[in-house]
Amino acid sequence: PEHFGFLMEWQVIGPFDNSGRKGFEIAFPPESEYRPVRKYPGKSGDVAWTKFPTRDDYGLVDLNRPFGKPKEAVAYARAEFVSDREQQVELRLGCKNAWKVWLNGELLFGRDEYHRGKQIDQYRMPARLKRGTNSLLVKCCQNEETETWTVEWEFQLRVCDATGTAVLSAGR
Fold it and tell me: What average pLDDT does this structure show over 95-120?
């Protein structure tokens, strides 16, 4: 994971409701605030932030593990990245679900598509890290489809330069 720059230390919250695939456009509370001890109304009751590190060699964050295998659901994952200087980087995401990514509260990009396959560096987003702690937020949506190949609800995110060389958090 370190060689590629995958983010491994996450906090997750969810599930929130994605009935009728409307959750992609709904701004649930994690999009506007980070309060690690606060509870929010979720899809089936109150939800709160939970530490959820991944140990996958390629940084895969499997959201089915903390939340079961819900359908029509939205979850958020948050990570911090410490940069020793202001710098231009690329955030590279692999995800087969609908998703959005924010850096320090600014929406970088999103795709409202489901089950189109997942691969390393599938999506590339130019980003500018500030000196110090940067917050990354990923919104990942699961739809209503029930075929076995639609159960996966996961993503991987790495930080690198434009050539794909890992940029590591100074907080490691």
Answer: 93
CB 84 within 8 A of CB 131: yes
Q: Is 82's pLDDT higher than 70?
A: yes
Whether residue 144 is predicted with pLDDT greater than 90 in this model: the reply is yes
Cα–Cα dist 160/163, whole Å: 8
C-alpha distance across the termini of the chain, in Å: 12
Residue type, 5: G
- Rounded (10°) CA dihedral 118, 124, 127, 129: 50
- Are 142 and 111 in contact by the 8 Å Cβ rule? The answer is no
Exposure letters 137-172 (e unless 16+ CB within 10 A, then b): bbbbbbbeeeeeebebbbbbbbbbeeeeeebebeee
Write out the DSSP string of 70-132: -SSEEEEEEEEEEESS-EEEEEEEEESSEEEEEETTEEEEEE---SS---TTSEEEEEEEPSE
Q: How far apart are CA 112 and CA 45, in angstroms?
A: 25
This prediction's pTM: 0.96
Q: If you ran DSSP here, which 8-state letter would residue 24 be given?
A: T
* Residues forming a β-bridge with 30: none
Distance between CA atoms of 97 and 86, rounded to whole angstroms?
Answer: 31
For residues 79 and 12, give the distance between their C-alpha atoms in angstroms, rounded to a whole number: 9
